[in-house]
## 1
Amino acid sequence: MSILSGKRVLLGISAGIAAYKTVALVRLLIKQGADVKVIMTPAAKEFVTPLTLATISKNPVLSEFINTEEENPTWNNHVELGLWADLLLIAPATANTIAKMTSGQCDNLLLATYLSAKCPTYIAPAMDLDMYQHLSTSSNLEKLSSSGVAIIPAEEGELASGLVGYGRMAEPEHIVSYLTDHLLHVSPWFGKKVLITAGPTYEPIDPVRFIGNHSTGTMGYCLAEVAAQFGAEVILVSGPTHLVAKHPKIETLRVTTAEEMMAQVKNHYKKVDITICSAAVADYKPAAVSDIKLKKNDKPLELVLVRNPDILAWCGEQKKKQYLVGFALETHNALTYAKAKLQNKNCDLLVLNSLKDPGAGFGTTTNQVTLIDKHLSTFPLELNDKRIVALEICKFIINH
Ligand code: CTP
């Protein structure tokens, strides 16, 4: 099955002669199982008709901010279009569109959609030889590339002007194979949904005090970042921490208590492909929370604690096709306890943190973990920055 199967591809067409090839391109994308919507710049309509593209894509073709053809004009919402898309492909991308994308101009629907889209963006440049070789074009392409836009290289051949050289838009077949190869290698989790719990939970005692732990959430936030870079849509259910996830594909849901974390996991669990429970969830909470601040006296204070829900265990019970990753933080008999946790909570992978290892655990920027798979084979990773450890964990999940 193609990685594009079931994916929503927004094809942006700007005004170059190569626009005529987009009819074949739409057909190929649909053959791969993609759902295709087309946006054209107003001038692109001179090169290929919206009617042809609407017929082939089986979706209305959009070009203007306001749809004036209807009796009651409607607004073509570029933000919604950007959010709809799993992938934005601009082909052909003319020198003019590339320059405007680079400088953030948005005087047409396609450019406004590009600016608001959060999905991976690909462009297939198409222009005449001299324009392609011009310093402004190459520096614009470099800037776009460094901001994360993937450039599908233009091809060599006869150009509309009669010149021969680089500048032709890549052939539709080449565009599609570039997309599929790139997605598989650079975004192996494209189209996947990943749920991650991170940070501590705070269990209130009264309006000012709580039971908590030393977790900072760093490991979970690093995992979220890597998963998003791999192309996944990430739901990060985070306990209290000062950390902020910046990647646009990470939706952070902030919670305080284990019960709140459980509720968010229950809301999202069914629709995700991979769940990683890295949060340091409090196993117990006070049986009763005082509405008013507790005042001290000379007698010992006794708190009655009751069990919190076990989020990872719940995920293990409910598991169908999801891949489930648990964490264990141990101070002694680490491997024995960790293997038991993996089995009791029906995990596919367990990440063991042994507090005995220097540089591992809470409050450090590094971590040293051992991965345990469901056959109970162990894979110790080297002490490393938590970002690298997160990368190794995600790569392990991909390879298994
Ligand atoms: N976990 C959870 N919900 C809880 C407790 C833990 O989801 N209420 C998850 C953690 O996110 C982690 C794993 O379970 O992935 C840790 O396993 P657990 O057996 O709960 O570890 P500890 O809480 O450390 O248990 P113990 O104190 O018995 O070692």
Note: The longest helix spans residues 172-186.
## 2
Amino acid sequence: MDKIFDKLINSFIDDKVGIAENFLSTVLATSLKENLKLLNLENKLRLAGIGNDLLINQDKKIRGDRVYWIDRKHKNIHENKFLDLIDLFVLHLNSTCYTGITGYEFHYAYYETGSFYKKHMDQFKNNDSRQYTMIFYLNEDWELKDGGELCIHHAEKLQNISPQNGKSVFFRSNEVLHEVLTTNKDRFSITGWFKIN
Ligand code: OGA
Ligand code: NI
């Protein structure tokens, strides 16, 4: 895995937004997506919030995704495999980049056809513990006409990233303005944050 970790970190250092294809194996990505679909059928996903820690607003004009927090307590083998990988990545980050990460939180996200997430930053206004954002895409055979790109607002240009299966994206939570463009197809992912204190 070290090679893929380094690929992600090096592209993050070069371009502010790290991208690595195949960060998740096809098998793991597929299992996670099936798990997410099942959770949706069981009505376990919740409309995501916006704003700060204390006051979570739900506003479908800003974001329309539904989420489910990943947790070892669920004793789900796919979630655990995913978290094992995250643990390895944190060890790698802290030993090679001195990032000092002490925790993390990850959730599944499901964007139903027609939904989006308007331009935003990921760090809360009254809580700066979120340092780095990482997103994993779980969508096989994503095509241009499907939309739903992650659009990064760099100072000089826009960068569109398609939510292709197994791809992972990594950036600083308080620096990178981004949005999810309207998706024309159901869109599945895992998003999370590496935290300090
Ligand atoms: C987020 C987010 C981007 C994506 O959940 O904060 O910006 O591509 N997600 O899903
Ligand atoms: Ni975001």
Note: The longest strand covers residues 103-111.
## 3
Amino acid sequence: MEKVIMHVDMDAFFAAVEVHDNPKLKGKPVIVGGTSERGVVSTCSYEARKYGVKSAMPVYIAKSKCPNGIFLPPRIGRYKEVSKEIFSILRSVTPYVEPLSIDEAYLDITNYTKNSVSTSKFIKEAVMKKTGLTLSVGISYNKFLAKLASDWDKPNGLTIIRKNMMPQILFPLPISKVYGLGKKSVKKLNDIGVFSIEELYKLPKDILIEFFGKYGIEVYDRIRGIDNRTVQILRQTKSIGRENTLKRDTDDKNELKEYLKAFSISISKQLLNKGFSAKTVILKTKTSSFENHTRSKTLPSYIYKPEDIYQEACEVLMEITLTEKVRLIGLSVSSLKENSLKQISLFDS
Ligand code: TTP
Ligand code: MG
């Protein structure tokens, strides 16, 4: 049977919460982000987007684009509180809710409602009543298309992609809309003259496999409306990490190690809380010119202790040649496994 998948995404989430909590901000360009000159924009209201302000943009650039913007520091605790209220409304519709982030979820409503449009309206109204916020809904027969649909008509959108609209409805879209095609992949395709999904559609499977390996098959299938991923109620934690923008840019590895030490302690604590060990250590750096680099190392055995994480992180750091100063450093661990009962009791003692 054809599934009915819904993707729900709050509009300008952090900024919308700020406006709701302080109605004087309504209609103004509100920008939430690190407020120091070195911070980046988390998000901004749709009014601020008109000036070209975007998530992840350095705050100083946002200030130059939108000098009248109202810049606010994030209040993560408050956003989490609102997120909880939204998710409890979603779970009142169906137990098949997969959280993707603080403001976004997939719902499998196949067996829970006959009319997906009225369900969307119910969710929109309930969320508005409880939190005062708007959201956008996408509905389709698989996850990929539902997510594309929710982004179709933001803010406060409701878009349905039906089987008989495929694949033509996707043709005019830029290839960056294909989930998983990041900047580098998009550039690779642009370089051979592929910009729209229509052009991507014409590429033979072999070329996509040559370009992207196994993921090439997924791209080939998805733009043809094939995506068999199910809605996962218990979303697995895939990685645990921390990152920080440095107080000043540096290429002194000893200085960077101090950050890694603090991150290792925090990551180890989170691993213990969740009862996990990890096998892969990933070091991320962003350079002064905003280039991201990651380098990872997979270990022969699982680790969880702060000193082990720190040691491995330092080894990865020492392998890197810094050609430029670093402005942000991050450390994360992945390839997680649940600890056995024996290990858990060891931690307890
Ligand atoms: P998004 O859903 O990507 O963005 P949004 O809800 O602000 O706007 P849209 O209407 O386009 O959905 O992200 C949700 C929240 O996550 C966002 O409000 C702030 C946070 N966030 C960051 O902190 N940094 C980022 O780079 C992004 C993309 C989001
Ligand atoms: Mg959102």
Note: The chain has 13 helices and twelve strands.
